[in-house]
Specification:
The protein is mainly alpha-helical and about 140 residues long. It is built from seven helices and four strands.
Length: about 140
């Protein structure tokens, strides 16, 4: 069977042809930063994963995209958001500013309207955002 990258430990990952100890360690560390992988293509974001290696091991791995953590964008602190590799300081600053004035967002589409993220960043970060209840006392516009 295929190795599921959101639950596999380093020892399991090195059993996959094309993944050595260094790459396995990098995968586990990056998975922790992301909160889990949404799809296997995210492995190509790692510097130690060459396109040749990715093609070699991609057939032997899979990704359970239900097993990753999300950032509650209406309540997360700046330091919590900074931990995520897809968040930029510019986006975090804008999120904090807009959250203070408008209270939060109900959907990612609302965030897109506020132009917080560039197109590529928006695609990458969208699955990692959760939109908890907006704090009382704020009206959505």
């Amino acid at each position: 069977g295929k190795v599921e990258i959101n639950s596999a430990d380093s020892a399991t990952l090195v059993k996959v042809r094309g993944i050595g100890p260094k790459t396995a360690g990098a995968i586990v560390m990056y998975r922790k930063l992301l909160g889990g992988f949404v799809n296997i293509n995210q492995l190509s974001e790692l510097k130690c994963v060459t396109s040749e290696n990715f093609m070699r091991f991609s057939k032997e791995i899979c990704c359970d995209s239900c097993v990753f953590s999300k950032i509650d964008i209406n309540f997360a602190t700046a330091s919590e958001m900074e931990l995520h590799p897809y968040m930029t300081r510019k986006a975090i600053k804008r999120i904090i500013q807009l959250r203070k004035s408008k209270g939060g967002w109900k959907s990612f589409e609302e965030m897109k309207e506020d132009k917080i993220f560039g197109a590529e960043q928006a695609t990458a970060i969208a699955p990692y955002l959760h939109f908890g209840d907006i704090p009382q006392g704020f009206e959505m516009q």
